[in-house]
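Record 1 of the preview.
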Amino acid sequence: MKTLPVSVESEKAALGAVLLDPKQLATLLQSAAIEDFCLSSHREILRVMVNLDRSQTPLDVVTLVTELDQAHKLESVGGAAYVGELLVGVPDNPNPNTEAYAVKIHDLARARALHFAASVACSSIEQGEPVDDVLGRLQQRELELIRANTRGARPIKAAALDFLNQFCAACDADGPDIKFTTSLPDLDSKTGGLQGLVYVGGRTGGGKSTFLQQMAFAQAKEGHWVYFATLEMTERVVLARGASMLTDIPTKSILNPRYLSKEDRRAITEAVAEIQTWPIVIDDTGGLEIHQLLANCRAQINKGVECAYIDYLQMIGCREYTRPYDKVTAISGALRDLAKTSDVPVVAACQLSRPENVNDRPTLFDCKESGAIENDASLLLAVYRPKEGERYTGEDEILVLKQRNGTTGPVHV
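->
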């Protein structure tokens, strides 16, 4: 049987580096936690080191042994001789190596945690638990491990160097300034395109899904790989809407083509022939749970997808929660983490609450069920289509309700 991943040598070297230079304790704890150490003796030694540091007691072999002895922990960690052995092999200047030790310890701890989660999942399946429940817990644990691998604090010099490299690359880049277009030039100018987690809000029948697909197809037409997950429409409706966008023939007529002219039929055929050459993946699987959707997104991102679209938020399942507020909060947080950890824009439609007056402009307060939609989004857009009687006036607007790095306000379309 294979043993779990662990490096006792790295743990000993990290603890020895702290004994040699107590300032290395901060460096160690920046990348690794006490719980990341595999051996219980090493966790206890590090815990005592932290206590000595907090009490501003000088940290060396003598004080460490004394503190362990007073806590009746000395023998359980191997005795004074073992503590002294921690210094063996540690270079006189441990500074360059401490962070490397810490990173390795942390990565191995995550590997053990993943191994344990997979073992629990296998055991649950063998005991007859529903597959979706097991997958949900496994997906949640995966997200926790991804969050635990955040880079953390680092000197501004390093951050500035990365910024300048990205800035210079953007200055010298060929092609359009906007990598992921919203499909509307004025909106691109205001927002800089799509980044992070983007929500497109709209009321029932208000055009949010149409606008979402318009953005997705515009990016695919430019050659970007796009994943379009629709929990509401079939792929037939998605293709019909796409053909309508290219031909201006109403979607309803395309779905019921009996009375179309020969010219319209030819135009639609040519439009679909063009669409099929675009790098877009359509997923019309209904009733997806959040863990299933995340798995599908990550699988497509691993294959090269550059932007993920989801239609729409409130239709995603989350069995762990029954209250709409808790459900939307959990799903929105998962989508935010997906966008952040994959560095791929995630664009999701969301339902807005019904207004008292049909022509009231949407606001942040209309984000249905949860404030997490506003908090998690890098960009929050809303489709506004005023009516006169039962007809739309044609004075449509896309409202920028929130933007982390820019201004808000309406854009006329």
